[in-house]
Each structure stands twice: as C-alpha cells, then as structure tokens.
Amino acid sequence: MRAHLYTQKATMHSDLHKRTLLKLAAAGALAPLALAACGKKEEAAPAPAAPAPAAAPAPAPAAGPLKAAWIYVAPVGNAGWSFAHDQGRKAAEAAFGDKLQTTFVENVPEGADTERVLRDLINQGNTLLFGTSFGFMEAMVKVAQEFPHVRFEHCTGYKTAANLNVYDSRFYQATYLAGIIAGHLSRTGVLGYVGSVPIPEVLRNINAFTLGAQTANPGIKTRVVWTNSWFDPPKETEAANALLNGGADILLQNTDSPAVIQAVEQAGKLAFGWDSDMSEMGGKAHLGSCIADWSRYYKQTIQAALDGSWKGGQTTRWGVPEGQNDLVKIPDTVPEDLRAQVQAVKAKMTDGSFDVFTGPITDGEGKEHLAAGTRADDAWMGAINFFVKGVEGKIPTSN
C-alpha cells in the first residue's frame, strides 16, 4: 500500500464541553485505495468462518465519562457516509451529556494506518471504538486481540470476536423505494447508477433499484458506471455525466459525495441523494435521499457500555423497520398518488409482509438465483455476484 497523509480531527468534551483539535500525520499522499484495501462496506462473505469465541464479560463501568472514538474513511464534510455517522455521534453526545466524551478521526486509510490510529485512540483512554469502513475490518480484528479490555464496533464487516461487534444497515430497502419513483418518472426508460466498487452490497443496491423501477416499467434499463472509489468527487461527476450523455434521465449513486446529484442538477435531470439528506444540494434535481440514521444504534451501544451490559460477538443489521434506513424529502413535484404508493410499500417493509429480495429472482441471462416464494437471507444477500434482468453490462472484477 502506498503511504498516505491523513488529518485527524477530534472533538472531546469535558464538563464544560470544550472542543480540542487533534491532528495525526503520516508521510505520503492520500490516494484512492485499491479495492483490496478500500471500501467501507461489505464484500462477498467467504466460506462460513468458525464461530466467534463466547462473548467475554463486559468491563465494569469506569469512573468518569465513557470515552468513545469514531474513525472515518472519508472527510466528514456536510453530506454522505462519514457525515451521517458523525451526525449519529453528535446525537449520542447530546443524549448522554457529561457521561460521554467523544473523539473522531477522519480520512483514515485502511491497513497499517488504521492500526496506528486505533492504538493511538486507545492510548488516549478511549475504551469504545467505532470503525465505519469495511476496509478497517482486519485492523480492528488484530487490535481487538491486543486490547481485550477495549470494546470495538465495526460497521459493515462480518468478523466478530469476544470484544468486537458488527453493525450494518439495509440500504437496499430505501433503494427499492427510490426505484419505484424512478420507474414511474423516467421518460427515456433508462436509469443511471454511479457505482463505487463491485462488491455484494453495491450490487444488491443496483438490483434493488432496478427491481423497484420494474414495478412501474418492466422493460426499464439501468446502466452502471464505476468509480472504483467510495469518495472521489471528480470521478463521481465524470460518471454522472457519462450516464446522462448515454440517455439516462434519473440517477442514483453508491458514492459518498454530493457530486452526482449536483452534476445532474446542472444538466436539468433528476437524481436521488445518498447516505444523508442531499435535498439542499440537489435543488430541483432532488427526488428524495436514501439515508441511514445511525443515532439509535450508537445510543443503544453507548448505554450498554455505560451500564455494563455490552456484549461482544454480536451482529446487528437494521433497516426500514427499525427506522435506520429511509427515503426522505420526497418533493411535492412527485405526484401524490406515487408518494402514497411508496409509503404503502414502506409500511409493508416495516410490518414484514414485504421483502425486496423474494423469489423468483433471475439474472439477465435467465438464470434463477432465488426460487419463487423464497425470501433471501443475509448469507444470500452477502454473496450477490450478479445483475438482475434489466441491468446492462458486466460486473467488473474486484481487482
């Protein structure tokens, strides 16, 4: 891995809630990370690993405030993945007051840099660490073994330990709702999707978007352009323009900046925001934003750490039913009956009577991947390696 430069920003609150800025530097230049060492979300799960060790008893609550730290793979900024997690951190601060002292570090590269940042945060006295990038997984597993008294929470991974949990969101549910709107409103019958990296979570979202659109127009097409990065605004803009020039009139993205929706707004077309509410940035182009609200999970986890009930070896995946994922800020320009249709489907997701990936699910060549009437489980969704019928093109290799 090439060396990187990253900047650490930390907010630490004392009884007077004063903020201190921390900076970490490592030689080198920050560059888009290769897939093997990048990404905040999950890749195809390998063959089932041996069961995680039995959860160790939670450490007894320490005197003074709980010190918790978050590490982000991209800048916090004012929109996107890291921004959404930081909003959850701030919500936890507000909820727990002087019982909680928080720190965050942004632009953390994966690999040895991740390990170094984690160890530094532990040396500063943090005993609860949240890693919000899939690519942080191996580093968190390693450091968790070295510091059994520290609690680790990894977002979107699949490896747990006695002091390491996994948490995730079901973005594909909100993506399906966006697809319903796109299918009804597209005039060209061609949708565009700016993909980050071709891993199961991204493929799952592309497929869900297309399946939702097909409820309105069975013949609709989705075209995908890949950036091979989670956060690269120039590449995201180029990808959006390529899709627009290719005939797509409504776009969705799986990347972290608002560059896509801003490019679409300049072109006079339509798009959805991603990760956080991008309504103000998208202007007239904005049809809604597929968001994740992490605040409930963070509050629940921190409360467990405070009262001594925190347990390792856990995996938590929440979505629309739990209020973690949603399609928000659908504008009045979307017809009222269409907005009502979206709400009706969301209600069925919430009560469990509808699931996005219910068979039959087939790919573009007609091969059945899920039998009629069968609901996909997390193992199936974590291993998706195909496009559903209607998605054009081939899936690039992950190397």
In short:
By secondary structure, the protein is α/β, with parallel strands linked by helices. The protein has eleven helices and 14 strands.
Structure description:
The chain is an alpha/beta fold. It folds into two domains: 35-170 and 294-318, 3-Layer(aba) Sandwich (Rossmann fold), CATH 3.40.50; 171-292 and 324-381, Response regulator (Rossmann fold, 3-Layer(aba) Sandwich). Helices cover 32% and strands 17% of the residues. It contains eleven helices and 14 strands. It has helices at 81-96, 112-123, 137-146, 171-185, 200-214, 233-245, 259-267, 279-282, 295-307, 336-351, 378-381; strands at 66-71, 100-105, 128-131, 151-155, 164-169, 190-195, 221-226, 250-253, 270-275, 286-292, 315-318, 325-328, 361-362, 368-370. The strands form three sheets. The chain has a six-stranded parallel beta sheet with strand order 2-1-3-4-5-11, sandwiched between helices. A six-stranded mixed beta sheet has the order 7-6-8-9-10-12, with helices on both faces. Helix 4 (171-185) runs antiparallel to helix 10 (336-351) and helix 6 (233-245) runs parallel beside helix 7 (259-267). The protein is globular, with a radius of gyration of 21 Å. The protein starts with 65 loop residues before the first strand and ends in an 18-residue tail after the last helix. Mean pLDDT is 87; it is low at 1-61.
